């Protein structure tokens, strides 16, 4: 059905959605794994939320929304890292405060979008995404941002992984946790921007931590987790796009939003992963990973 | 203080609350029940988990503060508000010097569908003796302001009711219907006469003058229909549909795509493909573009139409500054004719 339907792959909005969605799924599988391992899910969520202010600003300034999301996510990342903090409790506090300020700014910018420009549906597209309305011209930048994430994460894979799992050991080995943490937040910012472009700033968290969270329950090694997170993320995104496309026929022309289907699929995969982990005896809590440098 | 929820969970709970509120506020006329729902939701949580009970009350407090200041002394002339500026223009033409007219939706550079009322706006509307509003959910906020400031002497003209259209009418842009404004002018004159019977003859004369001044526009529509009836057109959004239909145009764009653009929701890829094909295969003769309701999708249609050299007619949703209702409508109808006749690409001059 999926392959037989030439209208599906022939449709320009579907093609754009598939490319941007694939970028978002792959990038978030990689970065999401570090984020979940580092216990940074809240920071990831906050970055995504705050990036909405950038999306809103981009509509005011007439620049690319990807640039807007990215700029704001980076500003927030710097803010959190420099307000911040080693202890988890304090980190949460700094993150929460930056999150509040960012969303407040977003409220102002969305208000200005509505009251000073002819932009329509700004709040929905910035917050919840509109994959079928992504302009073609954004495909290139989305691919570049994703490539940058893979390049950075590829170069810094081991130090990032070690810092994520055991900052003290990493420090003992001469890795500056602060700099690695900052670099991690920068890659996280890139990933957030691509996800926010695809499924909206508020929903970006779902893609960022959902597949990674599910994959970590099913895997014993980081690389394995990244692989499964990619599989889950891609299935959710492609499945979501296909369901949204088909929903046009289910509801006599009133297609449901893509973001809803993607996020729902991510949630279902997470539930399945928890069940599978229980049934197969993999503990319901994330397994401690066996890290590459200890095996040698 | 310790809490059984993590910050991420608290954050999500707050957000779900906000979404409930958004859903509630969106459905016009039913703000009470959802507030209570929200209250139950908030009350059912342990105190320490949600320290922001106040948050649930804030919208209500804001409403009271805003509306408490809403009464206003009126001048010697009749004070009238046309919520949308084209209605205000007609009130002014009928009432002349005996009426002071104010308007709310008057910025031709913004999208009126997403208008947000402020306390100052509430004050202006609540203090009016005559209010003309469109209805069909276009100005639901005005309906709420009027309902919370009852005044038995105030005359409220809802254009949808005047035209005997159902509340479920899909296309709210009623002022683009050729038969709308004569009816509005008559209703305005009736209300003015009740408030100021001494000038009944003056108001009646203005109605006749107004009807006569609409003739050039009505003739332009009729001649377009006779000459170019059945012209296939694509649109971004239904703003000018009533005019296009009156002129005999065949609107090819799927309704769901128009509605998605108008409401700022997700478009269906199938509908986007149909529209792209209409442009690419030159199945349309005119592309009608609402300059006040734009997003990345309408921009992509616009650039495709320009690339294919299909004449674009830019239209306004709100009456442009410096125009009267009659001149505005005539300009846009002439732009349609120029587009078919000479392939002129029109961005309607302000």
Structure in a nutshell:
The complex is a heterodimer of chains A (296) and B (350). With 296 residues, chain A is mostly helical. Helix content of chain A is 78%, strand content 0%.
Mean pLDDT of chain A: 85
Tell me the structural class of chain A. mainly alpha
Fraction of residues of chain B in helices? 40-55%
Total beta-strand segments of chain A: 0
Strand ordering within the main sheet of chain B: 6-5-7-8-9
Using the CA coordinates, give the radius of gyration of chain B.
Answer: 23 Å
CATH homologous superfamily identity of chain A: ABC transporter involved in vitamin B12 uptake, BtuC
CATH architecture of chain A: Orthogonal Bundle
The CATH topology of the largest domain in chain B is: Rossmann fold
Supply the number of helical segments of chain B.
15
**Element pattern of chain A in H and E:** HHHHHHHHHHHHHH
Radius of gyration of chain A: 19 Å
Largest sheet of chain A: none
Instruction: Kindly name the structural category of chain B.
Output: alpha/beta
Detail the poorly predicted runs of chain A. 290-296
CATH architecture of the largest domain in chain B: 3-Layer(aba) Sandwich
Descriptive account of the structure:
The complex is a heterodimer of chains A (296) and B (350). Chain A is an all-alpha fold. Chain A has 14 helices and no strands. Chain A has one domain: ABC transporter involved in vitamin B12 uptake, BtuC. In chain A, helix 7 packs antiparallel against helix 10. In chain A, 78% of the residues lie in helices and 0% in strands. Chain B is of the alpha/beta class. Chain B has three domains: 7-68, no CATH class; 78-213, Nitrogenase molybdenum iron protein domain (Rossmann fold), CATH 3.40.50.1980; 215-347, 3-Layer(aba) Sandwich (Rossmann fold), CATH 3.40.50. Chain B contains 15 helices and nine strands. A five-stranded parallel beta sheet of chain B has the order 6-5-7-8-9, sandwiched between helices. A four-stranded parallel beta sheet of chain B has the order 2-1-3-4, sandwiched between helices. In chain B, helix 1 (7-26) runs antiparallel to helix 2 and helix 4 packs across helix 9. The longest helix of chain B is centred in the N-terminal third of the chain and has 20 residues, at 7-26. Chain B starts with 6 loop residues before the first helix and ends with a strand. The interface between A and B is large, with 45 and 38 residues.
């Amino acid at each position: 059905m999926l392959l037989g339907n030439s209208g599906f792959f022939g449709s320009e909005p579907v093609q754009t959605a598939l490319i941007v969605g694939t970028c978002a799924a792959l990038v978030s599988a990689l970065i999401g794994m570090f984020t979940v391992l580092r216990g940074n899910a809240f920071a990831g969520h906050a970055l995504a939320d705050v990036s909405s202010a950038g999306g809103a600003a981009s509509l005011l300034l007439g620049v690319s929304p990807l640039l807007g999301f990215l700029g704001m996510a980076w500003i927030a990342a710097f803010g959190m890292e420099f307000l911040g903090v080693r202890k988890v409790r304090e980190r949460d506090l700094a993150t929460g405060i930056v999150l509040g300020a960012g969303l407040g700014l977003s409220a102002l910018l969305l208000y200005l979008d509505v009251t000073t420009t002819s932009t329509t549906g700004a709040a929905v597209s910035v917050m919840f995404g509109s994959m079928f309305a992504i302009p073609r011209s954004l495909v290139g930048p989305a691919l570049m941002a994703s490539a940058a994430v893979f390049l950075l994460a590829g170069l810094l894979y081991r130090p990032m992984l070690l810092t994520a799992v055991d900052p003290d050991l990493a420090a003992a080995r001469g890795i500056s946790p602060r700099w690695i943490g900052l670099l991690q937040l920068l890659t996280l910012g890139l990933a957030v921007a691509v996800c926010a472009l695809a499924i909206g700033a508020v929903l970006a968290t779902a893609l960022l931590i959902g597949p990674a969270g599910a994959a970590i329950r099913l895997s014993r090694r980081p690389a394995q987790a990244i692989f499964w997170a990619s599989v889950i993320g891609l299935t959710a995104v492609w499945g979501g796009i296909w369901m949204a496309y088909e929903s046009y026929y289910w509801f006599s022309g009133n297609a449901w939003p893509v973001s809803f289907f993607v996020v729902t699929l991510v949630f279902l995969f997470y539930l399945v992963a928890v069940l599978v982990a229980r049934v197969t005896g993999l503990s319901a809590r994330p397994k401690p990973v066996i890290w590459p440098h200890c095996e040698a | 203080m310790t809490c059984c929820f993590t910050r991420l969970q608290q954050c999500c709970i707050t957000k779900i609350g906000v979404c409930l509120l958004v859903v509630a506020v969106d459905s016009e006329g039913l703000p009470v029940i959802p507030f209570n729902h929200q209250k139950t939701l908030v009350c059912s949580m342990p105190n320490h988990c949600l320290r922001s009970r106040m948050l649930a009350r804030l919208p209500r407090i804001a409403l009271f503060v805003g509306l408490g200041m809403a009464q206003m002394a009126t001048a010697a002339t009749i004070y009238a508000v046309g919520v949308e500026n084209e209605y205000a223009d007609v009130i002014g033409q009928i009432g002349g010097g005996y009426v002071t007219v104010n308007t709310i939706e008057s910025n031709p550079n913004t999208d009126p569908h997403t208008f947000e009322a402020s306390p100052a706006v509430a004050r202006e509307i609540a203090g009016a003796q005559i209010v003309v509003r469109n209805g069909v959910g276009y100005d639901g906020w005005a309906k709420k302001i009027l309902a919370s400031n009852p005044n038995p002497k105030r005359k409220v003209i809802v254009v949808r009711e005047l035209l005997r259209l159902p509340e479920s009418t899909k296309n709210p842009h009623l002022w683009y219907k050729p038969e709308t404004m004569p009816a509005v002018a008559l209703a305005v004159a009736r209300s003015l006469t009740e408030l100021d019977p001494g000038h009944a003859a003056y108001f009646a004369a203005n109605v006749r003058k107004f009807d006569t001044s609409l003739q050039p526009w009505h003739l332009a529509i009729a001649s377009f229909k006779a000459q170019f009836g059945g012209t296939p057109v694509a649109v971004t959004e239904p703003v000018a549909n009533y005019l296009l239909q009156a002129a005999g145009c065949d609107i090819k764009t799927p309704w769901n795509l128009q509605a998605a653009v108008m409401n700022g929701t997700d478009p269906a890829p199938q509908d986007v493909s149909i529209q792209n094909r209409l442009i690419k295969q030159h199945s349309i003769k005119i592309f009608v573009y609402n300059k006040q309701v734009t997003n990345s999708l309408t921009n992509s249609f616009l650039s495709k139409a320009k690339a294919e050299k299909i004449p674009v007619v830019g239209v306004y949703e709100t009456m442009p500054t410096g125009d009267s209702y009659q001149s505005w409508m005539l300009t846009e109808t002439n732009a349609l004719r120029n587009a078919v006749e000479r392939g002129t690409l029109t961005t309607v001059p302000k």
